[in-house]
Amino acid sequence: MSADHKPKAEPGSDSPLPDIKDARLDADPVSSSEQEDLAAYGINERTLLRKIDWRLLPAVGILYLLSFLDRSNVGNARIEGLATDLHMTGNQYLTGLTLYFVGYVIFEIPCNIILKRTTPRFWLPTLTILWGIVATLLGVVQNLAGFFVARFFLGVAESGLFPGVVYYFSMWYKRRERQFRISLFFSAAALAGSFGGILAYGIGFMRGIVWEKGWRWIFILEGLATIVVAVGAYFFIYNYPDTAEFLSDKERKFIRDRLSSDSDATHDETFTWSNALKAFKDPKCWLYGMAFHTTSLPLYTFSLFLPTIINSLGYSPAITQLLTVPPYAFAFITTLSVATISERLNQRALFIAGSALFAIIGYAVLLSNKDPLGRPGVSYVGTFFAAGGIFPATALSLSWPAINVSGQTKRAVANAMQISIGNLGAVLGTQLYRSGDGPRFIVGHSFALGYLAANAAVASVLYLTLKRENKRREAITPEVQDIGNLVDWAGDEDPRWRFQY
């Protein structure tokens, strides 16, 4: 924890809270000695975790829902006349999509370094206000150049949220508790897809108000909603356990002690460039990046082009907007279900590869349907398989460095590095669904299928790499406990550290 995070002596509430499923507690119960230590505080661990979950997860989940909504609503806007009004020719629309990810990739690592040097309460809402402003301005652009500039800066502003929140969770939860929370947080992307279709359908009825077509209102209303929520986020985003106002002094000490049992979250690590460079020198961090890279292309091509894919099957714009909702709802269910089972069994690679194979079935269906206009229902079923596999594979891939990278600065950089490498896949993906390729979109669907097969392969390589490394370290020294209390901790390079796979 940085030196400016001093405890505040403010009492927190211990009132009962609704249940949130805690896969970690069932899968990895504390030892009897830990239980004795925890009992000394007079605090119920489950109740406190629920309290933390309810304070943290809805807050950052709402921000990510808005982020995903503001980046992907361009697909809904296209159906409502965006390309026609801005006189886009050929594949200029795809160039605008690409520019978003160029800005996103360039600024992810700098954004996480800023987060490390400031605070979540300042940085996350500030980013949200910035992209809310840019998203709103997309609704008033008058030409292609304005569209390009706005998409680039939308990517810049949104780049710091996801890697920042993944690092943020690592400062609150034990290692085995992070995966389910990250997956729950990421599931907001699937909800954004569902809400985006419903909102676009409703906002579409505003066509004729000020502007002939309704696409401008999609950007304006959703962007303004983001700004309003972001202002409130300065009050409902908390920093770290040592300064969180909703915790009592006893709860802060309790959290610090439980975190110190298996992570470096309680270390007072100051930022140094040498610690930041450790992530770039670690081959495993590059593999984590490839795990996301191979899901990023299918994730964003699906999110950005689903309205186009469905519309090309012969449905009207209004019906298209509604038909985008069910596949995302299915993805939300599969993401949480797979994350829960994966957490309980303490297995990641198996479920990443399995989810990727499930999504491959969807693209195989889409590619094999030679008459999409005559049999649109077959292709539509394929979108369910694609969504149901892509989202859980992505969520689990994104949780890996948060669990396995030790060293606060290294982990912050590794999280951002993973998403930067990953979103290079999205840059490529934005150029694959070209005008004139529908309704089968053979090139785009084939690339997505190939990338998902590569994702299963990368997950297998990581599984073997981490398992072999653990075996090598077991021959050297036993696994360390109480990492937070070690003064000689060197991070995950230490042979006493064990990786989870």
Automatic annotation (TrEMBL):
<dbReference type="Pfam" id="PF07690">
    <property type="entry name" value="MFS_1"/>
</dbReference>
<feature type="transmembrane region" description="Helical">
    <location>
        <begin position="412"/>
        <end position="433"/>
    </location>
</feature>
<feature type="transmembrane region" description="Helical">
    <location>
        <begin position="122"/>
        <end position="141"/>
    </location>
</feature>
<feature type="domain" description="Major facilitator superfamily (MFS) profile">
    <location>
        <begin position="56"/>
        <end position="471"/>
    </location>
</feature>
<keyword id="KW-1133">Transmembrane helix</keyword>
<dbReference type="InterPro" id="IPR036259">
    <property type="entry name" value="MFS_trans_sf"/>
</dbReference>
<feature type="region of interest" description="Disordered">
    <location>
        <begin position="1"/>
        <end position="32"/>
    </location>
</feature>
<feature type="transmembrane region" description="Helical">
    <location>
        <begin position="147"/>
        <end position="170"/>
    </location>
</feature>
<feature type="transmembrane region" description="Helical">
    <location>
        <begin position="182"/>
        <end position="203"/>
    </location>
</feature>
<feature type="transmembrane region" description="Helical">
    <location>
        <begin position="378"/>
        <end position="400"/>
    </location>
</feature>
<keyword id="KW-0813">Transport</keyword>
<feature type="compositionally biased region" description="Basic and acidic residues">
    <location>
        <begin position="1"/>
        <end position="11"/>
    </location>
</feature>
<feature type="transmembrane region" description="Helical">
    <location>
        <begin position="94"/>
        <end position="115"/>
    </location>
</feature>
<dbReference type="GO" id="GO:0022857">
    <property type="term" value="F:transmembrane transporter activity"/>
</dbReference>
<dbReference type="GO" id="GO:0016020">
    <property type="term" value="C:membrane"/>
</dbReference>
<feature type="transmembrane region" description="Helical">
    <location>
        <begin position="285"/>
        <end position="306"/>
    </location>
</feature>
<keyword id="KW-0812">Transmembrane</keyword>
<keyword id="KW-0472">Membrane</keyword>
<feature type="transmembrane region" description="Helical">
    <location>
        <begin position="349"/>
        <end position="366"/>
    </location>
</feature>
<feature type="transmembrane region" description="Helical">
    <location>
        <begin position="215"/>
        <end position="237"/>
    </location>
</feature>
<dbReference type="InterPro" id="IPR011701">
    <property type="entry name" value="MFS"/>
</dbReference>
<protein>
    <submittedName>
        <fullName>Major facilitator superfamily domain-containing protein</fullName>
    </submittedName>
</protein>
<dbReference type="InterPro" id="IPR020846">
    <property type="entry name" value="MFS_dom"/>
</dbReference>
<feature type="transmembrane region" description="Helical">
    <location>
        <begin position="445"/>
        <end position="466"/>
    </location>
</feature>
<feature type="transmembrane region" description="Helical">
    <location>
        <begin position="318"/>
        <end position="342"/>
    </location>
</feature>
